[in-house]
Design brief:
Blueprint: E1 5-6, E2 11-16, E3 22-28, H1 38-48, E4 66-68, E5 72-73, E6 76-77, E7 82-87, H2 109-116, H3 132-149, E8 153-161, E9 164-165, H4 187-199, E10 206-213, H5 227-236, E11 241-246, H6 257-262, E12 270-271, E13 274-275, E14 280-286, E15 295-299, E16 305-309, H7 319-341
Helix pairs in contact: 1-3, 1-7, 3-7, 5-7
Amino acid sequence: MSDNTFGKIFQVTTFGESHGAAIGAVVDGMPAGVEIDTDFIQRELDRRRPGAGAAGSTARKESDTAEILSGVFEGKSTGTPIAMLIRNSDQHSSDYGELKDLFRPGHADWGFHAKYGFRDHRGGGRSSGRETACRVAAGALAKLFLKSISNITISAFAAEIGGVKAIDLDMDEISRNPLRTPDAGAVPAMLKRIEECRMAQESCGGIVECRISGVPAGWGEPVFDKLDALLAHAIVSLGAVKGFSVGSGFDAARTAGSVNNSDPEAAGGIRGGISDGEKIVFRAAVKPTPSISQEQLMPGTDGQLHKFAIKGRHDVCIVPRIVPVVEAMAALVLADCALRQRCARV
């Protein structure tokens, strides 16, 4: 199984680099006959794409137009692999010329060099956040499949940005503000924090929460492929995510068993690795964007430390743009679980 492929039955393989000609995804395992709404796929991509207006976003401008190359006929899935292509059009590869022999702190540069002895230094290559556009396109297909068989809703949002927490939970508010937070009252403080980071040539992270309703009891496998384990795998596979929790998460470690057992939300909708029919709730910790324009010490291929300021166009805060990516990965997990559940019993 390739590291570039995710899923057992509903599988997605992504390809391409940040500064290559194109990126894309191949989705295999989509049942035939599912209505493929290309406008919906594009709306999902527009929520993530650079230059779309999300607060703290990079200045890179990409249309992120998905071209469906196969697997769809007369508006429906054919049951064969669906290939989607997203062309890169606004690369500034020259911004990375001086990084050829340097390893940026907080990035995957050294890891790729240590593993392969060779790396694409332009914007991080394969490790770039640009790869997540492929996941969003594939996740849109997963959402369309789930819609065809259920009433599942997947809603992620910015629960915290730069230490500023969302207190109120108005799910309708998420689409009304550029931070994709459910608390309108927290928006000014969050925006102020992002602007403070921008002026200081800094960055900030936050916490994304995802709430999923409509999942029937019984999805997920009892041992290695527990539903919460699959969700953790999917979400932590995102380069910016450094932590994951379900339900009461780490707070469960500080409570008594009787208290935890009596709290209906503590399990987060998953018991024994299997959905229990309740709302599924998980959270992801998103690190500050590692590319900042402050001068930093960076190790080089010569074994020496060098002072260097990263150039280019980078997000001050990735949290608003990662919200649709988190939803997409959750959708891919659930689409795969739905198909696997059909094999569980006669």
